[in-house]
Structure formats: C-alpha cells, structure tokens
Design goal:
The chain is an alpha+beta fold. It has four domains: 167 residues, no CATH class; 37 residues; 119 residues, Roll (CBS-domain), CATH 3.10.580.10; 100 residues, Uridine Diphospho-n-acetylenolpyruvylglucosamine Reductase, domain 3 (2-Layer Sandwich), CATH 3.30.465. 55% of the residues lie in helices and 15% in strands. Helix 1 packs antiparallel against helix 4, helix 1 packs parallel to helix 5 and helix 4 packs across helix 7. The longest helix is centred in the first third of the chain and has 37 residues.
Length: 457
Amino acid sequence: MLFDIFITLFLVALNGFFVAAEFAIVKVRASELEVKTTGKNIKVGKVAMFILDHLDAYLAATQLGITIASIGLGWFGERVFETLVTNLLHSFHLQASPELIHSIAIPCAFILVTFMHVVFGELAPKSIAIRYPFSTTMMVALPLRIFHFVFRPFIWVFNGFANFILSLIGIRTDGHGHGAVHSEDELRILIEETKNADITLDAAGISKYELLEKVFVFDDKMVKQIMTPAAKMFAVDIQKPFQVLFDRIIEEGYSRIPIYDEDIDNILGILHTKDLFKLQKKPALALRDVIRKPFFVPSTKRVGDLLQEFKKEGKQMAIITDEFGATMGLVTLEDIIEELLGEIYDEHDEEKSQQDIVCISDNEFIINGLASVPLLNTQLPNPLPEHYDYNTLSGYILQKVGRLPEVNDVFYADGYEFTVLQKHRARIRTVQLRYGVEPPQPQSTNKTHNASENPAS
C-alpha cells in the first residue's frame, strides 16, 4: 500500500513538473537567460536557450507529460485512495454493507485526487514558475530535454497533426511570433510599471527612468521644436571686413558659424573656427574658400531622423528651412543630445544665460525675450510651463496673450506679473518678471491682462 501511495504522489509531482515547465519556458525571456547564465550554469543555460528556440516542440512535450501524468493519476490514484477510504471506514467498524461503503469511498477518493491534482499538480507549480521563471527554467531544462528525446516520435506526430489542422484554418505554424516583441505603448507602460514598483529609487534611478521616457518622446519631436530660431542665431555676413568677422567670431566663442550673403535666408556655408585661423595666416585665401557646404533640412524632419543623418554625413550642424526655403533656425548635435540627457552647460552657456536674465531681486527679473524657457527655468523661482509650440520667452508670451503685446502691456500668468519693456517691430526684446504679484481686481485698465482668461492659453 505504501508503494501505491508513493506512486500516486509521484504522479502528482510529475504533473506539477510539466505544468511548471510549460509556464516557465513561456514566461522566461531569452535575454534574461543570456544575462544570468554564468559559470556552472552555462551548459544548462545552453539547453534552456535551445528549448526556447524550439518552443513549439517543447510545449508539446510538456502537454504530453501533463496528459500522461493526469491520466495515470486518475486511473491509479483514484483506486489507491478508494482503498484507503474503504479501509478507514472499516476501521470504525461501521454496520454498513460493502456496497454502501464502496459508494462512499468512490466520491471521497475522487475529491482527494482532484484536490491533490489541482493544488499540488497545477496551481502551486504554476505560481512558482510565473514568479521565478528563470530559476524554474534552469531546473526543468535538462529533464525536459531528456523527456523530449525519449518521446520525440510521439511529440513529432502530435505536433505535426496539430500544425496541419491549424494550417487548414489559415493560422501560421512556422514558429515565429513567440518572442516578446512589444509595441511602443506597451514598452512605455512596462517602464512606468517598473518605475512605480521600484521602491528603492535614488536620484540615479529616477534619472535612468526619465532617460528611457525621453527616448520615446525624442523620436516624435520635429526639429523646429528644438532649433535655435533664426532671430537668435549667431551668423555673420560675408560682406563684412575680415577683421570685424574675426573679432565677432572670437568674441562669441562658437566652433561653427553660419555664413550668409547680406540676408540670413541666403546661407552660403558653415565656417569652422579652426579654418578662421588659416585665413589669418594666409591672406591670399578668401572666406568663400574655407567655408563648408551647409546642411539644409526641412523644419518638419523628425529629430531621430536628423540624428541618423548627422551620423551618416558626419555633420554637427543643420540649417532649418521652411517650405519656401527661408531660414528658420539651426540645430546642432548638442541640441539633439540635450533632448535626451537634459541641458549640458559649459562656460559659454553660463555667460549667455547671464546675458539673458538679470536678477533685480529674488522675485524680480529683467529677461531677454529670446531667452530659452528651459534655460530660464533653471534660475526662476517658479518654472514656466514648457510646450512644443514655443521655445523662447517671447513665444511663451504670444501663446499666453494670444496677440502681439505693446510696450508697457502687463499680464499675469503662472504666478508672475509680466511687463513688456522693449519691442522691436514684431519681436519682444525685453520683459520684466515679478514673482508672487497678485493680479489686480476687476477694475483693471486696458493694458492689464490676465492670461488665464485667454482661451489661447
């Protein structure tokens, strides 16, 4: 009797083994096996990778194993438990006919076998495999490989017949599609879920997740959203005297400078600063002789595509044009990198930033209208909202007010009082910001405007 009980428990364990194997090889990722398989586990890891490469065949093997174990448990185990229950009832010396005892023993045995089969042969191993897919796969890989080798003819027949039936109804059976290929939206959800589940995040961890999130936004952006606008470009007119050009270029400190002929829309090329010194040493050379061919791209080109073109062409600067060929601005390789990694500051950026913003007090500032909003946000007490429709403070104001303001116009938005101090034609040149100033009550003048009431905001 003990031997019979042992065989029954073995069949339950065998069923659990194949259930765990089935869920583990479906759940585990090939990349996880490659990363975690080291040292003594290399041979087992290779077997596991082989199983994943032939997933259909090994899933068929697990199904065959589950079927054999389940049938054996139902056929053999029920008789064992029926005998156990019958002996137990007889031990109580019940005054009942053998037929009655038998009729009680059968359903009791069925319930016991079903309970063991479901709990210990299905649910428990399934949960373990789902929770620990790598460890489970490494444990079942070799036995499953041996089982597949022994029963290979039967598995081939069963799998082949199943594939034939599926092909009749138009379902592909070539083994493709088992890999965990995720769409962009699914990957975003996975990253967000992983970030939320990671309770040990430090500053570096948060930065890692932010970088992953930026990757998805990165490719959706167009170059016009990250360009330096033409009004803020540093470019020089080729008609200027050489010494004037030389002094201006050295003063600004850029390594690459667009060169135009009288009009910014007529870009002739890009001057590298190192070539400027060639001109100084060889007066016979003309500026046109050393400038490089400009790289023009439309404003609607995606940032990711431009990065690929930069790599392919070996460029670091592109001139952005509109549909009519007019110059809209420029984009550098540094601009693209900053979209992924955030602002990269050097001494020149710091100097430009100081020129863009003058602190009158902790809550009052005089700001250049062409100052970058992301750069301003590093110095303002309350950050201004960033949006793809604008990049500069001037663009932010136009978005909020919905019109071109006049000098001395005042409006309130995002916790600031904005006063336009200087304007040149259609360009806002200088703006005063005061933080924490409450907007006036309804008795306001024509030149006081609350941007929050404007539908364009």
